[in-house]
Amino acid sequence: MIKAKKSLGQNFLIDDSVLKTIVNHIEINNKIVLEIGPGTGNLTKYILNKTPKKTFVIEKDDELAKKLKIKYPNLLNIINKDVLDVDENSLFDEKVVVFGNLPYNISTEILSKWIVNLGDNLWFEALVLMFQKEVADRIIANFNSSKYGRLSVLTSWKLNVIKIMDIKPSSFKPKPKIDSSLIFFTPKKDFYKIKDPKNLEKITRIFFNNRRKMIKKPYNQIFNGDLRVLDKLKLDLKLRPQNLSPKTYLKLTQEYEKLIS
Questions:
Q1: pLDDT (0 to 100) of residue 210
Q2: Which fold has domain 197-260?
Q3: What is the C-alpha to C-alpha distance for residues 88 and 78, in angstroms, rounded to an integer?
Q4: Domain coordinates of the chain in residue numbers?
Q5: Of 17, 82, 115, 198, whose CA is between 20 and 30 Å from 260?
Q6: How confident is the model at residue 10 (pLDDT cuts 50, 70, 90)?
């Protein structure tokens, strides 16, 4: 019997109805599929039943990777590594569909990595990913809401996002203490071009560090009180970080990049 490892954020999805919902959300027949954290292979089984052209799985746990190889001989391309150490862009020569019950402890780090590394040559067609509900709410939050923040801005920059469903702890083994949410992502065909995504991360970090306070202090910290940018973007310094749209943060990033170039 396999025991979930808390250190790896493992909670195995065991609910067949949820597993079917996940795999039925997008057509994968004759497509390349990547599954993140397959664990005991519960979702993997349903993926293989949909006859993808090729199936890759990334599983960090050595024991689970070995068991998957035995359970599905010659059916999987198993990558026994930490997903954060994998260069997905170099793995595939065509777009893939990605499924993942992401480890709760690194889920935002995984998503952020993919967005930051998502150049003009998109490596995935769609993502169907599981997050703890609190994180999912932050991902899909609109500006002017309390859950809106850095993750909302970063995600909406390059991705279209739809929440599919919420999932109760009883669908997992062991049961987590919180609800989860399943989210569907597709890349945007057009998005704001900035020179370095790290600059967007920096801008949003500085602004949201004091999310309850007015934006005057972070604005002055970045632009040294330059009124030209303020006038150009028609910003009110009495607003709070959650009142600025994702587009405004992207424009601020563009202005910042002009300043440092």
A1: 87
A2: Helicase, Ruva Protein; domain 3 (1.10.8)
A3: 14
A4: 6-187, 197-260
A5: 115
A6: low
